[in-house]
From TrEMBL:
InterPro entries given in the database record: NaCa_Exmemb (IPR004837), NCX_ion-bd_dom_sf (IPR044880)
Record field: transmembrane: 23-51, 63-80, 86-102, 114-133, 139-158, 179-201, 207-230, 237-254
Protein's organism: Metallosphaera cuprina (strain Ar-4)
Keyword Thylakoid: no
Designated name of the protein: Sodium/calcium exchanger membrane region domain-containing protein
UniProt keywords, alphabetically: Membrane, Transmembrane, Transmembrane helix
Membrane topology designation: Multi-pass membrane protein
Superkingdom field: Archaea
Length: 256
């Protein structure tokens, strides 16, 4: 439940952009969030844990991790197909429903305290979403760069500040582990639900992915790498370094 509520900022921007047929802005927002969340989870949390406790980050083995690989492979196949359309949207929606049912069947909301704050924040974003989209296009026009590049930088940064600040404030190992698992759940939900919304909204013809292919490729790469690094239930310091290399790859593709 917390993970679902946590994707409200991206959900609102995605819905608003899709309703206005700004599919590339919506898609770049989702892909940027997917990449940044995996980097925050494996690199930032891994580094921070090692600095505080001087040992590897033990997070335990979970069947949820396999969904990371499944979704990453689907994103790779979507890139190969060259478009995101209603058919891909339905496939991703099915994966989202399977994952949600699986989580709901064994998880109970233990602490509902963060939900009101997240909902209030979501309402604030909803009312300011038009202004946010206008700001994205204004910056794009001023800098003479595509608006979806601006969306990649702004929305993920705004939506992921909570994850970063929570990690910096936490002092317990269990809290850090729960935060990381929350990031994984949030990412799995956002990468399926939000992409499915864009796909379904774009219709049968869909939208061409050529201009966003670097983002598709790095999303696939970072997702598969995240799965390989955490599948054994432990994040080592070298794993965090390796994921950071993914950031450098992302930045190098960004400059192309």
């Amino acid at each position: 439940m917390i993970a679902l509520v946590s994707i409200i900022p991206e959900l609102i921007v995605t819905l608003e952009a899709s309703l206005r047929s700004n599919y590339y802005v919506a898609l770049s927002t989702v892909l940027g969030s997917v990449i940044s969340l995996y980097v925050i989870g494996v690199s930032f949390y891994g580094f921070l844990y090692f600095l505080r406790w001087r040992r590897d980050f033990s997070i335990g083995r979970r069947s949820d991790y396999f969904f990371i690989l499944i979704i990453s492979l689907l994103m790779g196949l979507m890139g190969i197909s060259g478009s995101l359309n209603v058919y891909w949207g339905l496939v991703l929606l099915a994966v989202f429903l399977v994952f949600s049912v699986k989580k709901a069947s064994k998880n109970v909301l233990r602490d509902p305290k963060p939900i009101p704050a997240l909902l209030i924040g979501g309402l604030a974003i909803w009312f300011s979403s038009q202004w946010l989209l206008q700001g994205i296009f204004s910056i794009s026009s001023s800098l003479h760069i595509p608006p979806y590049y601006v969306a990649i930088l702004i929305v993920p940064l705004m939506s992921n500040l909570q994850e970063i600040s929570s990690a910096l404030r936490s002092r317990g190992e269990t809290v850090m582990r729960d935060l990381l698992l929350g990031i994984i759940n949030e990412n799995l939900m956002s990468s399926t639900l939000l992409l499915s919304i864009i796909g379904i909204a774009s219709g049968i013809e869909g939208i061409a992915l050529t201009s966003l292919m670097p983002l598709i490729e790095i999303s696939f790469f970072v997702g598969v790498l995240a799965y390989l690094l955490i599948m054994n239930g432990e994040i080592k310091l070298q794993d965090s370094v390796l994921m950071m290399v993914g950031v450098l790859v992302f930045l190098s593709l960004f400059r192309v």
